[in-house]
């Protein structure tokens, strides 16, 4: 059954190919009978080229591309400036936090504090270890 199917499919392909070749040969013969050569057909299809218009179009295209490139460059530069400003502001904030932490640690080291806890151990009261004198 498989052999029969493969033989039939091969025969169909050969017959289709043969019919295409016959149609192509008929069109070539008809063109040659009319007395028109292939070169004349190709020459008749060509249109005159206007060099000045092509130059103008190329110049306009290059101007558009240059403007687009400039806008993309400006966008990238503005985004980079914005990112740099964010980084600098974050650095400033971190430095301020570090200064406050340093000050608080200096103050804590100089003043001794006693912590009093409640019975449950939940609440804590911080009192200076030495009472203040009036």
Folded structure, characterized:
This protein is mainly alpha-helical. The chain has a domain at 53-104. The chain is 75% helix and 7% strand. It has helices spanning 2-33, 38-45, 51-110; strands at 113-117, 124-128. A hairpin with a 6-residue loop joins strand 1 and strand 2. The longest helix has 60 residues, at 51-110. The radius of gyration is 46 Å and the shape is elongated.
The proportion of residues in beta strands is: 5-15%
Per DSSP, the total helix count is 3
Low-confidence stretches at least 5 residues in length (pLDDT < 50)? none
Instruction: Give the mean pLDDT.
Output: 76
Per DSSP E runs of 2 or more residues, the count of β-strands stands at 2
Task: Name the shape in a single word.
Answer: elongated
Rounded to the nearest angstrom, the radius of gyration is 46 Å
Structural class: mainly alpha
Provide the succession of SSEs.
HHHEE
Topology overview:
Elements: H1 2-33, H2 38-45, H3 51-110, E1 113-117, E2 124-128
Antiparallel strand pairs: 1-2
Nutshell version of this structure?
This protein has a domain of about 50 residues.
Q: What features would you highlight for this structure?
A:
134 residues; single chain; 7% strand; two-stranded antiparallel ribbon; mainly alpha
